[in-house]
Amino acid sequence: MLEVADIFRSHGPAWRATTRLSLGQLKVMSAIERCRTAALGGHVLRCSGCAKAEVSFNSCRDRHCPKCQASAAHRWLEARQADLLPVEYFHVVFTLPAPISAIARYNKRIIYGLLLDIAADTLRTIAGDPRHLGAQIGATLVLHTWGSALTHHPH
Questions:
Q1: Are 92 and 142 a contacting pair, CB within 8 Å?
Q2: Rounded to two decimals, what is the model's pTM?
Q3: Nearest-5° Cα angle at 62, 32 to 31
Q4: Which of 10, 39, 85, 140 is 20 to 30 A from 100 via CA?
Q5: Using CA of residue 76, residue 70, residue 17, residue 15, what is the dihedral sign?
Q6: What is the SS3 assignment for 9-32?
Q7: How far apart are alpha carbons 37 and 107 in whole angstroms?
Q8: DSSP per-residue codes, 26-89
Q9: Which of 8 and 150 is assigned the larger pLDDT?
């Protein structure tokens, strides 16, 4: 199966030579390229029954790495599901308009903070209105900064 790391290893050097990336972006690419390879070291697992040995390479543990975060995302989801009440739930998405999304690239903390604050206020206001639900609600807000096409798409 083709992975992001395979693409980065194959095409990353040429792409980096033609594209201006921040130091943070370069570090993420490097971490993903090296994740679970000999570059990060590893350890040998040996079966006590048959003595078969298997090398297991270390993970980069970068928060952007798809390999490392798949299990973390699964654990997070299980923990959230344990918190659920036996009531109806709704999935609502708030997306930044493109001009503000461009500003967010350089002012992440401020813009993303505003997005989450405004989304929460909007949900509370609409749900609290007697014409709609007339109730106090709870919400779990999750920030996604990339869309499924791997483009900057804060929502």
A1: no
A2: 0.56
A3: 30
A4: 140
A5: negative
A6: HHHHHHHHHHCCCCHHHHHHHHHH
A7: 34
A8: HHHHHHHHHTTSGGG-EEEEE-TTT--EEEEEPP---TT-HHHHHHHHHHHHHHHHHH--SS--
A9: 8
The answer to whether residues 12 and 29 touch, using CB atoms and an 8 Å cutoff, is: yes
**Mean pLDDT to the nearest integer, 67-71:** 82
* Cα–Cα dist 75/155, whole Å: 22
Residue for token digits 């006590």? 48
Output the pLDDT for position 148: 66
CA distance linking residue 26 with residue 92, whole number of Å:
33
Assigned token pair, 134: 């007339």
Q: Which residue, 76, 93, 69, is CA-closest to 147?
A: 93
